[in-house]
Amino acid sequence: MKKKLTVLSGAGMSQESGLKTFRDMGGLWEQYDVTEVASPEAWERDPSLVLRFYNQRRKQLFEVEPNAGHLGIAELEQRFDVDVVTQNVDNLHERAGSSHVLHLHGELIKARSTVDPFLVYELDHWALDLGDLCEKGSQLRPHIVWFGEAVTEIPKAVRIVEQADILVVIGTSLAVYPAAGLVNYVQKGTPIFVVDPGKPAVHQPNVFYIQEKAGKGVELLLEELKKLM
Ligand code: APR
């Protein structure tokens, strides 16, 4: 039986692919005011500004590739039963070959209806504009969980983390809840590997820090995991 390994990833995972993180130097939230581009109030106030913000990010996503970190995580499936629980809205885990990816904060390559949240559409072009409507005639919005909106996938993520034999935390500052609280759902004694050039706080026993960027860090992680097999 393959051991269950859960990866909890954040923006740092995609930094080496050329996508900015949120809270690091030069990060997105230094350039943009969250309340103007990533909240339901912002959407009410100025939907064009919000659409432009996500169009730029989506255009960039179409131009970048998964990095060595993403590829290393996908490779883990050869030896482990891997679930990726990501805060990232990019599709780089899937493009690297990861089979089980749960997006907590939505997906940039999708749009959804503003009258029926279950009407979700895959986008084959980076631009989503005013006038792009759902089949019920409502304006389409980015399929993103904005600040102040419910993270509806959390119950699924908690069940995954509770069953993990190993938890790997990569490239997240663990500053945003409820995602950051997932580390507290591991079974007692479960090893937790944290791959990050910084040292995000994890208040659990059995935490092992690999203070490297994702690409190099995942390589070192593989060495550590071999000892657990
Ligand atoms: N490899 C690994 N980790 C990295 C790298 C890298 N190349 N570069 C930066 N990091 C680390 C930083 O040290 C930091 O701990 O990635 C983390 C990035 O943290 P944030 O910018 O806060 O991103 P994240 O934790 O994903 O943010 C959570 O906040 O803004 C919202 O919805 C958004 O999903 C996002 C959530």
What does this entry look like structurally?
It contains 8 helices and 9 strands. By secondary structure, the chain is an alpha/beta fold. It has a 6-stranded parallel beta sheet with strand order 3-2-1-7-8-9, sandwiched between helices. The longest helix is centred in the N-terminal third of the chain and has 17 residues, at 47-63. The termini are close together. Bound molecules: adenosine-5-diphosphoribose. The site of adenosine-5-diphosphoribose has 23 residues, from loops.
Query: What are the low-pLDDT stretches, counting only 5+ consecutive residues below 50?
Result: none
- Spatial ordering of strands, largest sheet: 3-2-1-7-8-9
Small-molecule binders here are: adenosine-5-diphosphoribose
Element-level helix/strand string: EHHHHHEHEEEEHEEEH
**Structural class estimated from helices and strands:** alpha/beta
Indicate the percent of residues in helices: 25-40%
Query: Count of DSSP E strands?
Result: 9
The fraction of residues in strands falls at 15-25%
Summarize this entry quickly.
The chain has about 230 residues and is α/β, with parallel strands linked by helices. About 30% of the residues lie in helices and about 20% in strands. The longest helix has 17 residues, at about 45-65.
